[in-house]
## 1
Amino acid sequence: MDNVLSKLQEVYDFEYVSYDFDVDRDKFVDFDENEKLPIIEFVSDNNDVLVKINGEHSKKEIENILVDLGVELK
């Protein structure tokens, strides 16, 4: 998913932060251990979760979420 999000970041104006489950376990303490990885959260500027998706998704699916959230083009 890093590749998909990196490509979308070239077109859309959003910040993208990636965590590795094996390295950054402390970032995952609030998640259910049975959740399918990867976990992608789209958050507001004040860290409210707007959309959360689990598992692999296509570039188009992610792009549709960005558009629905009103993320602007660069």
Note: The chain has one domain: 2-68.
## 2
Amino acid sequence: MSSALNLAHEPLTKIPSGKLAMWAFLASELMFFSGFFGAFIVLRSGNYDVFGAGSAMLDWKLATLNTFILIGSSLTMALSIYHLEKKNNNMFRLFIGLTTLGGFGFLIVKWIEYSAKFHHGLFPGQEHHTLFFSFYFLMTGFHAVHVIAGMIPMGYMFFRSFSKDGYPYPWKVETLGLYWHFVDLMWIFIFPALYLMIPYHAAVAGH
């Protein structure tokens, strides 16, 4: 076979196959999240009082803190990629470590939220659980699983960076960065949908 027809090591798109696979995976995940949002919007329109009352019971201040944590982690992820491409292993280690800590911080805040909901009987199967909280735990729980899934390879890259040659695969970090930015973006949509039903909150404050 002529070299012109041998495509084993040279994809037609000039994009690494791992990055293409990540884009395909993210497209499938987008369909999952779109289904959640679509069902949420349809059911909210017919149960606005229940959804509004549930939203008013959420702690938007903790959710705002988590939003800033994830936005900051997106920045540190981008900086880790930049420094690894510049072959600055020490700075890469610093920023991938900060990104991982951002993930831990997000999960800790989420644990505080979940603990409060359990205390108030809002967990599935408890007496005050409603349709709104079914969506709340489904959407935020599914998102938290994605956060954990991103932190696992981050931890590996961080510890691998202590080896003699450091972490030698910038394109893998860039591919992971695509995933992490997607996770952050989904939270940007989840946050206002669940926590900021502003008209209802304003009506509650008016009473």
Note: Residues 1-10 have pLDDT under 50 and may be disordered.
